[in-house]
């Protein structure tokens, strides 16, 4: 009974990971600016209408919410696929600006296989519903966030199933005088994000390695055994990357020492 209780607590007991992140050139107006990250929900529900998740987010009082993909499952077998996320966002979008980039599950909605285009209309209609709620979907695009007269840049990399980054071709060059924040589903391209010039990256995908062992870290992700970026804050040269352990599970409901996670990042001026 203890093992069963532990197993269900690991799947359903939401944790909050908070980090203070100092960035060069961050305007004073953004000092204390709070970003909450959601990732890898995979149609998971924390209570009816995701009420427990909504209550946790409201308790953090974010300035913006960023979503880094895989919020549903790529399957024709799931009726009303995406409705769990739509309902969640209906309960959040009136209170917070929300920015969204896709993962492989959104980009692969109803693919017959990875080499064929999706049936026309599935992903496009899903994204249009999000936009109608006021969600900013960033498909290789940039948004500008303004506090008083100061601005920072927020870029979103659309998930490419081919795995080709070509970031500068897709997003252009980073700015010389503004903080550049990047949303991208996959953390494995951290070197490319650093070379491009991102100051701060939000990513997910690894589910925290599913099983987290002391001194070892995550054991398995969708990409590899013992993933290098299983969760937390990573530094490389002048760039930082935040990797969420995610909220849901796919393809199996497995989390050990690795509870579902909301990430709270507070920006600080240096």
From TrEMBL:
Keywords associated with the record: Hydrolase, Metal-binding
One Pfam family named in its UniProt record: Metallophos
GO molecular function term, any single one: UDP-2,3-diacylglucosamine hydrolase activity
Domain of life: Bacteria
Xref: SUPFAM superfamilies: Metallo-dependent phosphatases
Swiss-Prot/TrEMBL GO biological process terms: lipid A biosynthetic process
Domain Calcineurin-like phosphoesterase: start-end pairs: 33-208
GO cellular component: membrane
Residue stretches in coiled coil: none
InterPro entries tied to this protein: Calcineurin-like_PHP, Metallo-depent_PP-like, Metallophosphoesterase_sf
PANTHER family: PHOSPHODIESTERASE YAEI (PTHR31302:SF31), TRANSMEMBRANE PROTEIN WITH METALLOPHOSPHOESTERASE DOMAIN-RELATED (PTHR31302)
Name of the protein in its database record: Calcineurin-like phosphoesterase domain-containing protein
Species the sequence originates in: Guptibacillus hwajinpoensis
Lineage: Bacteria, Bacillati, Bacillota, Bacilli, Bacillales
């Amino acid at each position: 009974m203890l093992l069963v209780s532990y197993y269900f607590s690991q799947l359903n007991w939401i944790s909050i990971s908070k980090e203070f992140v100092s960035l060069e050139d961050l305007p004073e107006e953004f000092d204390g600016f709070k970003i909450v990250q959601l990732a890898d929900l995979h149609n998971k529900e924390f209570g009816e209408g995701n009420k427990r998740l909504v209550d946790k987010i409201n308790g953090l009082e974010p300035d913006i919410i960023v979503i880094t993909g895989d919020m549903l499952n790529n399957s024709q077998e799931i009726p009303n696929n995406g409705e769990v996320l739509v309902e969640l966002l209906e309960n959040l979008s009136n209170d917070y600006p929300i920015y969204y980039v896709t993962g492989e599950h959104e980009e692969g909605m109803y693919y017959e296989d990875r080499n064929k285009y999706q049936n026309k209309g599935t992903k496009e209609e899903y994204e249009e519903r999000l936009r109608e709620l006021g969600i900013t979907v960033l498909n290789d695009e940039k948004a500008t966030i303004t506090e008083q007269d100061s601005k920072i840049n927020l870029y979103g990399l659309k998930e490419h199933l081919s795995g080709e980054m070509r970031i500068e071709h897709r997003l252009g060059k980073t700015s010389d005088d503004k903080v550049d924040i990047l949303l991208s589903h996959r953390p494995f391209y951290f070197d490319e994000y650093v070379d491009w010039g991102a100051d701060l990256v939000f990513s997910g995908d690894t589910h925290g390695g599913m099983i987290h062992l002391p001194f070892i870290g995550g054991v398995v992700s969708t990409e590899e055994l013992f993933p290098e970026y299983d969760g937390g804050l990573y530094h490389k040269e002048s760039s930082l990357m935040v990797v969420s352990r995610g909220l849901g599970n796919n393809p199996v409901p497995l989390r050990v020492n690795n509870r579902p996670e909301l990430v709270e990042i507070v920006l600080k001026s240096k």
